[in-house]
């Protein structure tokens, strides 16, 4: 299955945000939800079919213009499944945030079902003066199930410079992924990258969690847990935390 | 190519301060994740496939063209979210440069580069090839943590070296992959991360008493 979806959020010129483009196709369906609040709009990703399954080629492009505020959520976890013998499934997400724009990407977790073979490629460009909160949660296998193979490849640039470049591979074909350097006994991991002139202030608390000031203008919060509840307990409060000026973080 | 020169560069006795670092092992031992040789095996395989691959690729890239040192350094910053690990890498890079400058005519690449960039520059100055720089980098990621494991857990050194021997072909494989990609644009170079090493390094940096600097 091939599918493409696109969201373009623009300032409406009256302190609010309008969606100039909101287009998707199954399984990447997009729905505007809730009422405009704080000058921003919320869009939910709705899974319109099972998967991703092997062979699927999915693409989502998100554009946030100057002064626009967009929050992207999803109605449920996405479940990568094996499907028929085929090349790996792939989801490519690109996002750009203009100066004065804000993008909050807070989807539900990706679950790597046993036997899946899935790539996630994320490319985010934030202009100087833009604000980003980008979260990715991954669960390695359903309950008491071996993990499938997932490779996540992420590049977040700020003002044209790589701020956060990270690859994570779990499951068969990823040497040592369940060893003590990568996830240990953990079966869930969450990462949140905050970037921009204002950043979440308080530290992330937990034995297997930490927030880290990046070399550029951003912070990474990451948490590893036996299950997704531990990850959510560490990261959810941080995603809702008040923002503080960069110099104070 | 000089095999003796490569051995010199990869030797743990090179006075570059590497013995002060456990490669992230000390906090994982404290967390109870590494207790024996099996646990060390999983730790080293993960470290080799992540930080080892990244170090090998950046060392190979710096060796191939020391003029790229500055952009490679920025690329490693973006791949090292933990401030404690960035400090540790730069401290080791600085110490390595100091040792290397006494041995070979190393070009100017800044005072405190990340360790893999310094290693690549030394390898170039020593007349070594990118794949040799990559082997030295991959080898260094396993041996440093392995000798720290012997000291921290009192493991049987024979068993630990047997493990290193089993990992040697994987070091060669990682180095070959890294060297093959060394000409790629910096954003496309390997970026495999190890979340528990990042988290562990941040907690470790706050300990009042620790045996290793990182």
UniProtKB/TrEMBL annotation, chain A:
<comment type="similarity">
    <text>Belongs to the UreD family.</text>
</comment>
<dbReference type="Pfam" id="PF01774">
    <property type="entry name" value="UreD"/>
</dbReference>
<keyword id="KW-0963">Cytoplasm</keyword>
<comment type="subunit">
    <text>UreD, UreF and UreG form a complex that acts as a GTP-hydrolysis-dependent molecular chaperone, activating the urease apoprotein by helping to assemble the nickel containing metallocenter of UreC. The UreE protein probably delivers the nickel.</text>
</comment>
<comment type="function">
    <text>Required for maturation of urease via the functional incorporation of the urease nickel metallocenter.</text>
</comment>
<keyword id="KW-0143">Chaperone</keyword>
<dbReference type="GO" id="GO:0016151">
    <property type="term" value="F:nickel cation binding"/>
</dbReference>
<keyword id="KW-0996">Nickel insertion</keyword>
<protein>
    <recommendedName>
        <fullName>Urease accessory protein UreD</fullName>
    </recommendedName>
</protein>
<dbReference type="InterPro" id="IPR002669">
    <property type="entry name" value="UreD"/>
</dbReference>
<dbReference type="GO" id="GO:0005737">
    <property type="term" value="C:cytoplasm"/>
</dbReference>
Automatic annotation (TrEMBL), chain B:
<protein>
    <recommendedName>
        <fullName>Urease accessory protein UreF</fullName>
    </recommendedName>
</protein>
<keyword id="KW-0963">Cytoplasm</keyword>
<comment type="function">
    <text>Required for maturation of urease via the functional incorporation of the urease nickel metallocenter.</text>
</comment>
<dbReference type="GO" id="GO:0005737">
    <property type="term" value="C:cytoplasm"/>
</dbReference>
<dbReference type="GO" id="GO:0016151">
    <property type="term" value="F:nickel cation binding"/>
</dbReference>
<comment type="similarity">
    <text>Belongs to the UreF family.</text>
</comment>
<dbReference type="Pfam" id="PF01730">
    <property type="entry name" value="UreF"/>
</dbReference>
<keyword id="KW-0996">Nickel insertion</keyword>
<dbReference type="InterPro" id="IPR002639">
    <property type="entry name" value="UreF"/>
</dbReference>
<dbReference type="InterPro" id="IPR038277">
    <property type="entry name" value="UreF_sf"/>
</dbReference>
<keyword id="KW-0143">Chaperone</keyword>
<comment type="subunit">
    <text>UreD, UreF and UreG form a complex that acts as a GTP-hydrolysis-dependent molecular chaperone, activating the urease apoprotein by helping to assemble the nickel containing metallocenter of UreC. The UreE protein probably delivers the nickel.</text>
</comment>
């Amino acid at each position: 299955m091939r599918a493409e979806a696109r969201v373009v959020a623009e300032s409406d010129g009256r302190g609010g945000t309008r969606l100039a483009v909101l287009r998707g196709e199954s399984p990447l369906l997009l729905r505007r939800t809730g009422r405009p609040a704080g000058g921003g709009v919320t869009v939910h990703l709705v899974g319109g079919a099972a998967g991703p399954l092997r062979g699927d080629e999915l693409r989502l492009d998100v554009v946030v213009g100057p002064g626009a505020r967009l929050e992207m959520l999803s109605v449920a976890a996405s479940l990568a499944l094996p499907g028929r013998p085929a090349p790996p499934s792939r989801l490519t997400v690109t996002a750009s945030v203009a100066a004065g724009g804000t993008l909050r990407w807070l989807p539900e977790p990706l679950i790597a079902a046993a036997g899946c073979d899935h790539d996630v490629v994320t490319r985010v460009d934030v202009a100087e003066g833009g604000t980003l909160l980008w979260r990715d949660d991954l669960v390695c296998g359903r309950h008491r199930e071996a993990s499938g193979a997932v490779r996540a490849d992420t590049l977040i640039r700020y003002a044209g410079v790589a701020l956060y470049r990270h690859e994570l591979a779990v499951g068969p074909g990823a040497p040592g992924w369940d060893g003590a350097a990568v996830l240990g006994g953990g079966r869930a991991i969450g990462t949140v990258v905050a970037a921009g002139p204002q950043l979440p202030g308080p530290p992330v608390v937990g034995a297997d969690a930490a927030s880290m000031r990046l070399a550029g203008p951003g912070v990474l919060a990451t948490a590893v847990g036996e299950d997704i509840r531990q990850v959510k307990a560490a990261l959810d409060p941080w995603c809702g935390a008040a923002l503080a000026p960069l110099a104070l973080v | 190519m000089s095999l003796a020169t490569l051995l010199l560069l990869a030797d743990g006795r090179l006075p570059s301060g590497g013995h002060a670092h456990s490669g992230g092992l000390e906090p994982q031992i404290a967390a109870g994740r590494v207790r024996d040789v099996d646990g060390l095996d999983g730790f080293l395989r993960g470290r080799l496939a992540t930080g080892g691959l990244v170090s090998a690729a950046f060392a190979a890239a710096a060796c191939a063209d020391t003029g790229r040192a500055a952009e490679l350094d920025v690329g490693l910053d973006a791949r090292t979210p933990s401030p404690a690990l960035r400090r540790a890498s730069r401290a080791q890079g600085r110490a390595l440069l100091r040792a290397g400058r006494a041995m070979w005519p190393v070009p100017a690449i800044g005072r405190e580069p990340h360790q893999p960039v310094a290693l690549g520059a030394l390898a170039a100055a020593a007349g070594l090839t990118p794949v040799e720089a990559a082997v030295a980098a991959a080898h260094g990621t396993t041996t440093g943590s392995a000798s720290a494991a012997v000291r921290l857990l009192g493991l049987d050194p024979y068993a630990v070296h047997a493990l290193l021997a089993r990992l040697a072909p994987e070091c060669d494989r990682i180095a070959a992959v890294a060297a093959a990609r060394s000409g790629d644009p910096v954003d496309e170079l390997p970026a495999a991360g190890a979340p528990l090493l990042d988290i562990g390094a941040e907690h470790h940096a706050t300990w009042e008493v620790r045996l290793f600097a990182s």
